[in-house]
Design a protein that fits this description.
alpha+beta; globular
Length: 743
């Protein structure tokens, strides 16, 4: 398919250098006769006296001469000469001859297609350099597309993805300037890539961007829906994005007016339901079927579901789930309201006894919806549940995050509720501090701050737990920062493995850093991803160099190692936690976009892999997502609603303050963003280093110099471009303000 496309392109453009505008017909004739040496001599003579436009044509023809000679007798020197002529053609006249850059780009494609027919494998680096020069000169999406195809053919997945993203960014930049490139295939490829990998959030971003640029193309909607349909099974696996992200992607299709979005959503949910039943997952089966019954009762076969459920799961799920099953799926079968209300009452009381107050409240809401005439009964149930909740909260040993959240949700919003709410959180945090359960401290305070962001009690509690957390993790684990590796041998290319006990400490530190940043802190390490990362670390160690696309001739090369290298943060010169800290710091000339930090703190990433050698480390950051249950899904989704800053807002350790500060926010655009930093009301000098970029969340990076220990730094992030809620392409500017209290 690709060869056919190139052939058509070559034929359609073969006369582009020799149209009626070509100023040297005699030299043109010499070229067509195949007298390339004479042609090059004539070109050299004419270049001395040629003006800008004439030089463009002469370099164009010179490039063709060298390429034609190469086809007759392949040689590295001729390839270099052809590429150099082409670069001069582009570079000399970029911006000066506004009508020619696209023509130059097309000429390059034509020449390259011919050169590729006879290219020697050892000359591949020249082709790579050609594409890079092509893109760097024009910033044109089709140049990035050729880079993408080159890397795909070379199996360099990481670089291929990066090239495609650069093409998307270039297309958007040209669109903002009023230049329409019709780079539809690039946007669809980026959408397909993310859907194939199960990344619904990135897919939503890809669709939203493409739809904004190509809103008039109905085919963009149709093709996007088709791509999702082909990959629908990916979103019922444990490796996919959380359901809430898939919902947002499909909602974006709906907002854009794509006609099949509803059917796609039903199809996706049906696929999920079949999977959960076969896995004998009672909770998820009932959750999914309940949703379909509520939202699309005409599309849901209740009797078939109950039959499948009982055949695969059996008639002995838990008591609570059994009652819920009867409630949801036999409710329409009962003819007597009395029987239905009996089921409701039994379900609500059972959940209350188990402390599942939020779920119990949702069942009450469901009851109100089904039985609007039985409002008094429902109010009685709510009062009974509230009484049970208060009794539950009165016992400190039974205090839980869910019960505190339920209290606020079920109570009137007044000062007494606020006072009790803060009091319950304070009690709960103090209990968890004695247990050294900093994750629960972090979670309940994050919930509290969402409701009362400036509450003094919460601020003090956050500082207290942050200091204890820092002491118990960052300080006490310092002697364990260097990884312990078993059985690694470069001579025999044996990857070995990181000791199991060390992996436990490494994971604790990874979660500590994520918790400090305010994102989900119960991520895990996967054995398969650990293995790929370990092989990647071996390749880096054996060759004493870093690359995300190791060559097959590299020492100790393996496919698993190449996959690990292409999907990981890489470090050389240190390993384990030392390398992890270095990646968070992201110092150095090539790290201005703090890409390593952004992958580590990506809110939606829950499964990582870690491998280390004596002088290298690979952290597999394109890890799978496995949310396990609805509560985790909600927690992670809530994190995506917040910004991610490093240093983070609130109490923050001085030892972790980097030179480069960063601010990330989902779907944001930082092209016009301004950063204000102050201490004691006085402005601090800010130097912006990077905006946006293609790593995890969109991010702006700036530098602040100085020793800030014991100081409170005020940060204001202005003019952040965000999508207006309820729309898919309406942009608004937002301002974010926060304080970092450095201890």
């Amino acid at each position: 398919m690709k060869k056919t496309w190139i052939l058509i392109l070559c034929v359609s453009l073969s006369l582009s250098c020799f149209g009626e505008n070509f100023p040297y017909p005699k030299i043109q004739k010499i070229y067509t006769q195949g007298k390339y040496d004479i042609c090059l001599e004539k070109i050299s003579q004419k270049l001395e006296r040629a003006n800008a436009k004439q030089k463009f044509w002469l370099y164009c023809l010179e490039m063709r001469c060298y390429a034609a000679e190469y086809n007759q007798k392949p040689s590295v020197i001729l390839v270099k000469k052809a590429f150099n002529s082409g670069k001069r053609m582009m570079y000399k006249h970029q911006g000066e001859l506004s009508e020619y850059p696209l023509l130059a780009l097309q000429e390059f494609y034509d020449v390259l297609a011919k050169a590729n027919e006879n290219i020697n494998p050892k000359d591949k680096s020249l082709v790579k350099g050609f594409y890079l020069n092509l893109f760097n000169t024009f910033k044109h999406p089709y140049a990035a597309w050729e880079m993408y195809n080159y890397y795909v053919n070379e199996n360099e997945t990481y670089n291929a993805n990066a090239a495609l993203k650069e093409g998307i960014d270039a297309d958007v930049a040209l669109y903002r300037k009023g230049i329409h490139t019709l780079f539809v295939k690039g946007h669809l490829a980026w959408l397909r890539l993310n859907l194939e990998q199960g990344y619904a959030q990135k897919a939503e971003s890809a669709f939203t961007t493409g739809r904004e640029l190509y809103a008039n193309l109905d085919s963009f909607c149709i093709l996007s829906e088709t791509i999702f349909l082909l990959n629908i099974a990916k979103f019922s696996s444990e490796y996919s994005s959380p359901e809430i992200e898939v919902y947002h992607f499909l909602d974006a299709l709906k907002q854009a007016g794509c006609s099949q979005s509803k059917q796609l959503y039903i199809g996706w949910k049906s696929t999920l339901l079949q999977k959960y039943i076969l896995e004998k997952n009672v909770e998820k089966s009932i959750n999914t079927a309940e949703w379909m019954f509520e939202n699309y009762p005409d599309k849901f076969d209740t009797s078939f579901f109950i039959s499948e459920f009982l055949n695969n799961i059996g008639a002995n799920p838990s008591e609570s789930d059994s009652i819920r099953l009867l409630l949801v799926f036999q409710i329409s079968a009962y003819t007597q309201t009395e029987e239905k209300l009996k089921l409701l009452k039994q379900l609500i009381l059972t959940m209350g006894e188990k402390g599942e107050f939020i779920r119990a409240n949702s069942i009450v809401s469901l009851g109100i919806r089904f039985f609007p005439k039985e409002i008094k009964f429902m109010e009685t149930m709510q009062k009974a549940m509230k009484k049970s909740l208060l009794e539950y909260l009165a016992h400190s040993n039974m205090l839980s995050r869910e019960s505190i959240m339920a209290y606020y949700n079920l109570s009137p919003k007044n000062e007494e509720t606020k006072r009790q709410f803060v009091n319950y959180i304070e009690k709960y945090v103090n209990i968890k501090l004695t247990q050294k359960n900093y994750s629960e401290c972090f979670r309940i305070l994050k919930y509290g701050f969402r409701i009362f962001p400036k509450n003094e009690t919460f601020i003090k509690l956050q500082k207290t737990y942050a200091m204890f957390d820092y002491e118990d993790h960052y300080i006490k684990n310092k002697s364990l920062y260097t990884a312990k590796i078993e059985n690694l041998n470069v001579a025999t290319c044996t990857a070995g493995k990181v000791e199991d006990n060390y992996q436990i400490v490494f994971l604790e530190m990874l979660n500590y850093f994520r918790r400090t940043a305010g994102v989900y802190d119960s991520v895990t390490l996967d054995k398969e991803l650990n293995n790929k990362a370990q092989w990647a670390a071996l390749i880096m160690h054996a060759n004493n160099s870093l690359t995300h696309g190791p060559s097959e001739v590299a020492k100790c090369y393996t496919k698993a190692g190449a996959m690990g290298a292409g999907s990981s943060n890489l470090s050389l010169g240190h390993n384990g936690i030392n390398a992890l800290i270095g990646q968070l710091d992201d110092d150095g000339g090539n790290n201005s976009s703090v890409g390593h930090r952004r992958w580590i703190l990506n809110p939606t990433k829950l499964i990582f892999g870690h491998g280390s050698s004596p002088n290298s480390m690979a952290l597999y950051v394109f890890g799978r997502t496995n949310y396990g249950n609805a509560d985790k899904t909600t927690e992670v989704f809530n994190d995506t609603l917040d910004f991610v800053a490093w240093p983070a807002q609130g109490a923050f350790p001085a030892a972790l303050v980097p030179k480069r500060w960063s601010f990330s926010f989902s779907q944001a655009n930082f092209d016009s963003c301004e950063i204000i930093a102050k201490f004691n009301g006085k402005s601090l000098p800010v130097a912006i280093e990077s905006r946006n970029g293609g790593y995890a969340l969109p991010t702006i990076v700036w530098t602040l110099d100085g020793d800030f220990r014991g100081k409170e730094i005020y940060i204001e992030v202005k003019k952040v471009g965000c999508t207006k809620p309820g729309t898919y392409n309406t942009r608004i500017n937002k301002t974010f303000k926060y304080q970092v209290s450095i201890f």
